[in-house]
Amino acid sequence: MPAIEILGLEKTYEVGFWRKRPKRALHPLNLSVEEGEIFGFLGPNGAGKTTTLKLLMGLARPTAGAARILGMENDDPRVKAQIGFLPEQPYFYDYLTARELLRYYAHLSGVPSGEIANKVSAMLERVGLPTSAADVQLRKFSKGMMQRVGIAQAILHDPKVVFLDEPMSGLDPVGRREVRDLIERLKQEGKTVFFSTHILSDAEALCDRVAILHLGELRSVGAVAELTAGVRGKVELIWAGTTIPASLKALGAECHATSDSVRAILPEEKQEAAIEALKRERLRLISLVPLRSTLEDYFVQQVEQAKPAQAMAVRS
Amino acid sequence: MSGRIAYIAANTFREAVRDRVLYNLIAFAVLMSAAAVLVGQISIDIERLVVVNLGLSAVSLFGVVIAIFVGIGLVSKEIDKRTLYTVLSRPVRRWEFIAGKFLGLAGTLAVNTALMAVGVFGALLYVSHHFQSSDGWVLVALYFIGLQFLIITALSLLFSTFSSPLLSSVFAFSLFVIGSFAEDLRGFAGIVRGPTHWLATAAAYLVPNFSALNLISSVAHEQPISGQLVLYNTAYALVYTGMVLCGAVLIFERRNLK
Fold first, then answer.
1. Which CATH class name applies to A232-291?
2. Neighbouring residues of B20: CB distance < 8 A, sequence distance ≥ 6
3. Is the pLDDT of residue B37 over 80?
4. From A130, A143, A289, B169, which residue has the greatest number of CB atoms within 10 Å?
5. Are A91 and B81 within 8 A, CB to CB?
6. If pLDDT is split at 50, 70 and 90, which confidence band does A312 have?
7. pLDDT surpasses 60 at B152
8. Rounded to two decimals, what is the model's pTM?
9. What is the C-alpha R_g of chain A?
10. Which one of B85, B92, B256 has the shortest CB-CB distance to A108?
11. Alpha-carbon distance B150 to B15, whole Å?
């Protein structure tokens, strides 16, 4: 049984004050996430990631379609007791201390009263909030500390499925590493993690599978290795000297000269022509290295492919 | 009552306390102390009447202002600040959230009113040097003021589910003013004919009848209040509040959070 099943989920908002017109934020989306997976939900700003998460959490009503989590309707209270959610740029009741806030959420999530004090203390420690900060009102917290509180409230009640909307947002490099480690630990504990991000290196490092969403439409789903395998490869050439042959530039190479060598990156299929160009100019080739395609290459390719369609839509 | 409603109510109460809503009690205490001292010096035989009138009017005014200004933000503020996201993504139903918010503010007003009542009776004791049996009616008038607060809180909460705080406060204050003249509106409906009669009658029965819940003048003049009126007003306020809350739930259930 999939942990998350999205079946034709669609959302159209009405915009405008007097003459309302429909604006489709999410085209019918079909997606399935298996139990124990770390699933990355990627897309540029405005792609529809947050809209999808709001629909899954029951915060917005879908125009059409449905979603099932752990085999039950997504807004069934039995399901909600088993999921955790971190919204994007979370904001909490700032008149409460971190400890009070977590206690409140623990009560709402149905954690037995006798276990709450210990769970809250353990969770504050787990997300790296110092003991001295636990009893300070949240209005005095930095953005990074608030993000840690947000993560703590999402996993406090030991949920089976965790939804994180931009979990690394607002964190410094150390904080980001800690969150990455935490997500990996959640997977080791058998939990399913569904997280949205536009930081592709995080997704590449963590995810079993990713989905790319652009302009409210699903562009692709799969394991990172599968997706990037289809991307046209690139090679890196380095030669001695500072001369950049004009014929090499004509091949579309990106060239960077240093004091004693030149580094060029160009598509794999133009490698032979580039070597010929270097021979003609009597330049000494130092190295030729194929470059691994990254998720970023694939992502950019997907977004670029969508541009003509986007332009057509704007013109019409 | 479900535990979740109680926790939401307790958190709403805590928010009001930490946002210094109860600081209005200081202003009230100063007002009652000054009134008690001054009335004793300038009034002859009407000290009790002045203290009851002034005290109960102040209780009503302070409570209405709190009910409206806190009530209009109960839902809209949570939507604007997105604090609602982490509540409704838990096993909390939307109607439980509305019920919890309502009870939290109603509880805050109950504590506020109880403390103010102590102030009113303190001032009465100061000017009269003893309590009398008719002072019991002051408690009934305070109870009716509490019923008014329930209705105003529910109305503010209703507006908060679909409107901005500014518009909500305008709607709530307008209804409070019109409702305070509901009996006059019913009288007007009785003397006009045709469509105006139907419109005035509909409006008179649609707006909350706050004038029926305002017995400040009667108890100031030591007029008794019938048990039947207490029962009728209690039933009216509870039914009206319940219907308004049902409306708030119906709107909130369909609402998309931005």
1. alpha beta
2. none
3. no
4. B169
5. yes
6. low
7. yes
8. 0.86
9. 24
10. B92
11. 19
Is the C-alpha dihedral spanning A179, A185, A187, A192 positive or negative? negative
**Mean pLDDT, residues B150-172 taken together:** 95
The residue of chain A nearest to residue B96, with distances taken between CA atoms, is A108
Q: How many CB atoms are located within 10 Å of the residue B5 CB?
A: 21
Cβ <8 Å between A57 and B8: no
- Hey, is A1 helix, strand or coil? coil
CB contact under 8 Å between B91 and A110, yes or no, is: yes
Strand, coil or helix: what is A184?
A: helix
Q: Residues B109-128: pLDDT tens digits?
A: 999 999 999 999 998 898 88
Q: How does residue A316 score in pLDDT terms, banded at 50, 70 and 90?
A: very low
* Residues in B touching A110 (Cβ below 8 Å): 91
Are residues A59 and B89, on separate chains, in Cβ contact within 8 Å? yes
Please give the class, per CATH, of domain A4-228.
alpha beta
Share of chain A above pLDDT 70, in %: 96
Decide if A108 and B14 are in contact by the 8 Å CB cutoff. no
Alpha-carbon separation of residue B219 from B50, B53, B135, B173 (angstroms): 11, 8, 8, 25
Beta bridge partner(s), residue A4: A33, A69
Kindly report the backbone phi and psi dihedral angles of residue A41, in degrees, each rounded to the nearest multiple of 5, phi listed first.
-110, 100
Q: State the Cα–Cα distance between residues B61 and B161, nearest whole angstrom.
A: 24
Give DSSP secondary structure letters for A115-157. HHHHHHHHHHHHTT--HHHHTSBGGG--HHHHHHHHHHHHHTT
**Chain A hits for B18, Cβ within 8 Å:** 95
Query: What are the pLDDT digits (tens) for B188-228?
Result: 988 988 889 999 899 888 999 999 999 999 998 888 899 99
**How many other CB atoms are found less than 10 A from the CB of residue B171?**
17
Q: Which domain holds residue B113?
A: 3-254
Number of domains in chain B: 1
Q: Where in the sequence of chain A do the CATH 3.30.70.980 domains occur?
A: 232-291
Residues of B near A (Cβ–Cβ under 8 Å) read 3-4, 7-8, 11, 14-15, 18-19, 81-93, 254, 256-257
- What are the residue ranges of helices labelled H in chain B? 3-18, 24-42, 47-71, 76-80, 85-88, 94-128, 135-160, 165-180, 182-191, 195-206, 216-220, 227-254
Strands, E, within chain A: which ranges? 4-15, 21-33, 38-42, 64-69, 72-73, 83-86, 161-165, 192-197, 209-214, 217-222, 234-240, 254-257, 261-267, 285-291
Domain with CATH 3.40.50.300 in chain A: 4-228
At A53-78, the pLDDT tens digits run 999 999 999 999 999 999 999 989 89
Residue with tokens 């917290």: A141
Nearest Cα residue in chain B from A100: B11
Sign of the torsion formed by the C-alpha atoms of A91, A96, A99 and A100: negative
The verdict on a CB contact (< 8 Å) between A95 and B8 is: no
